[in-house]
């Protein structure tokens, strides 16, 4: 037990193995707890950094200096908590779709990661375009109620959109079975990254637009245009599909 505590990867593997074998109500309870903790604690940390810590150090700037409108954050958290429940329920599918806990080799991990990055870009861009059609825009409108975004906007979505997001990894696993450890790492990264692109913060405003490093970290600027302008910048992780279909704006 002491060695488990000293080795984070071993501990994570141990917890995943226990989660895979746990009765489903217990596994669901754990998944709900992890999602709510990541959303609420992670969002609060990001909020504190962007509102207080970075400005006190003179680092970066808020993209929209206005505060969120009254009641906005409470509304976002309410929707976000429902989305967390949906995400948690869908993680139970990893128990039957997964292929062990970790990939068999570094090469397997590398091609699975590359395949997922491509799949995720196409899936998220395609479903986001669908959400902007006249049949689904009412549901997607919940997310667009936030024009001045906050880290809590990340999962402030209609339950239908929550389900679409929650199906990203399970639908990929129907094509490429992942180890449950890989699935959860990608899932956790997705939660953190989605909060980041809604952070309303430019960490390096002194760097000119188009600078190679700025292009790596300017996704909050990129996604903010989607919230302020609407039918541009549908991609989350990359811009190539926006460029390909003429919806890119920066
Ligand atoms: Zn949208
Ligand atoms: Zn958004």
From TrEMBL:
Its main location: membrane. The chain crosses the membrane at residues 26-49, 77-94, 106-126, 163-186. GO terms for cellular component: membrane. It is found in: Membrane. Residues 114-247 form the Fatty acid hydroxylase domain. Keywords: Membrane, Transmembrane, Transmembrane helix. One of its GO terms (molecular function) is iron ion binding. GO terms for biological process: lipid biosynthetic process. Pfam families: FA_hydroxylase. It comes from the Bacteria. This is Sterol desaturase family protein. It comes from Piscinibacter terrae.
């Amino acid at each position: 037990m002491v060695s488990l505590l000293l080795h984070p990867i071993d501990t994570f593997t141990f917890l995943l193995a226990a989660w895979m074998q746990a009765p489903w109500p217990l596994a669901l309870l754990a998944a709900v707890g992890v999602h709510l903790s990541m959303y609420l604690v992670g969002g609060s940390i990001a909020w504190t950094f962007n509102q207080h810590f970075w400005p006190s150090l003179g680092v970066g700037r808020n993209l929209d200096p206005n505060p969120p409108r009254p009641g906005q954050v409470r509304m976002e958290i309410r929707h976000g908590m429902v989305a967390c429940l949906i995400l948690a329920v869908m993680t139970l599918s990893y128990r039957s779709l997964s292929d062990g806990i970790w990939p068999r080799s570094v090469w397997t991990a590398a091609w699975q990661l590359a395949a997922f990055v491509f799949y995720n870009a196409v899936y998220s861009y395609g479903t986001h375009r669908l959400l902007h059609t006249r049949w689904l825009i009412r549901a997607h409108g919940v997310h667009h109620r936030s024009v001045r975004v906050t880290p809590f906007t990340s999962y402030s979505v209609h339950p239908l959109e929550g389900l679409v997001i929650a199906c990203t990894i399970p639908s990929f696993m129907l094509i490429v079975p992942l180890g449950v450890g890989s699935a959860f790492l990608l899932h956790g990264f997705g939660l953190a990254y989605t909060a980041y692109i809604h952070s309303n913060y430019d960490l390096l405003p002194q760097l000119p637009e188009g600078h190679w490093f700025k292009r790596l970290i300017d996704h909050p600027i990129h996604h903010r245009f989607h919230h302020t302008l609407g039918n541009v910048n549908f991609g989350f992780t990359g811009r190539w599909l926006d460029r390909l279909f003429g919806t890119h704006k920066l």
